[in-house]
Amino acid sequence: MTDITRRDAIKIGAAAALTAGAAGLVGGADAQAQTAFALKPEAGASLKVLRWKRFVQGDEDVWLANSKKYAETTGVQVRVDSENWEDVRPKAAVAANVGSGPDIIITTNDDAQKFPGKLLDVSDLADYLGGKYSGWYPVCDRYSKRDGKWIGIPMGCAGNALVYRKSHIQKAGFEEIPKDLPGFLKLCQGLKKNGTPAGFALGHATGDANCWTHWCLWAHGAKLVDENNHVTLDSPETVAALEYAKQLYPTFIDGTLSWLDPSNNKAFLAGECSLTSNGISIYYAAKTSTDPAQKAMAEDIYHSNFPIGKPGIPTEQNLFFNMVIFKYSKYPNAAKDYLRFMMEQEQYLPWQTASIGYVAHPLAAYASNPFWTEDPKATPYRDAVKVMRDTGYAGALGAESAQCMADFLIVDMFAKACTGAVSPAEAAKQAHEQAKRIYKA
């Protein structure tokens, strides 16, 4: 359990000034029609919440302060526990199977689609929030609905963008990140030549490895399954993606094959690599550091969206966060009301601002948060939920797509091809057969 200090609680007061300036976010006919959520917490209710361990301190500080504020306002006691991303998934599966555990778990990607029958229908809450805040972005329907019902409330996503040292790419002959695939490869080769290499995770990193490998797959027009859930990995497009990644791999710093989510943060901040894919947490760590060298590095850190490939549109995959309530909860009303409270602009905007946009919003109205333009370095993360594809693209999300993610099927396919363990064609074929067994095709 994580305790909330008085200092943490005060932070939300300082950040709350943002809400007054952003009052215009709520408006229109839908907002007028839904100004209140009628469900009230049960008498004597208490809640247990399981979420991931913070990568950005402001995220945890204000989330806990908001939780304390809810407890003080309603009398509902809230306990928040934090685990690593890799540990939240199995704990959610155990809770679903045994019928006991936290009332609310903040899951990743399509984990909720593994056990939709064990989750509370939260359609009333989703409709309220969507009506009040200009609607949910389309990908939210894919992740958080099943059979027409909402089985989760989207928190947003950890946007994944390219993080780079501007002075280093300038030395490599570029003023900005190229917007095309050949140019991006040329940049990475130039960085390697200058001794300032790139680094992209190829280990079982839930966020970083999945994000860049899915981007690369989709940027070449390939996909795991088609619209009818037929496995399509054994294709010329997949081979092209793997051959491109195999050319990128020699430009990487050594050791990326075993990188987990914290690894590239550490390598970048240590000056060992100059380009990676990550959330805004690297910039946050440098910007808020007491080390003068780290603060100086923050001035040189910039962000960019990924290059555009064959489809001609963004093909980004970001780590989606779904807040689910289990049917076994003794206090379903309180659980819904807690999530409502956390998603209202009075709490959500100060939380998002304190974590400098580490979680991009799922509700369209929050794109107007002044934070996104006050620091232009945050802007590439603003539309992460709006433009992202879901992990089961282009088929339906479900237990099969979730299993492919849990098995790191796409990541391992790329790792095999990049390292030369097998040829790109053979890596695609092996992954195709593995996916067929999961999809029972």
From TrEMBL:
UniProt-listed InterPro entries: Bact_solute-bd_prot1, SBP, TAT_signal
Localization: Periplasm
One Pfam family recorded for the sequence: SBP_bac_8
Keyword Transport set for record: yes
GO CC terms, sorted: periplasmic space
Main subcellular location of this protein, as a coarse class: periplasm
Domain of life: Bacteria
SUPFAM superfamilies: Periplasmic binding protein-like II
Keywords, in A-Z order: Signal, Transport
Family classification: Belongs to the bacterial solute-binding protein 1 family.
PANTHER family listed in its UniProt record: ABC TRANSPORTER PERIPLASMIC-BINDING PROTEIN YCJN-RELATED, ARABINOSE-BINDING PROTEIN-RELATED
Annotated protein name in UniProt: ABC transporter substrate-binding protein
Organism annotation: Aliidongia dinghuensis
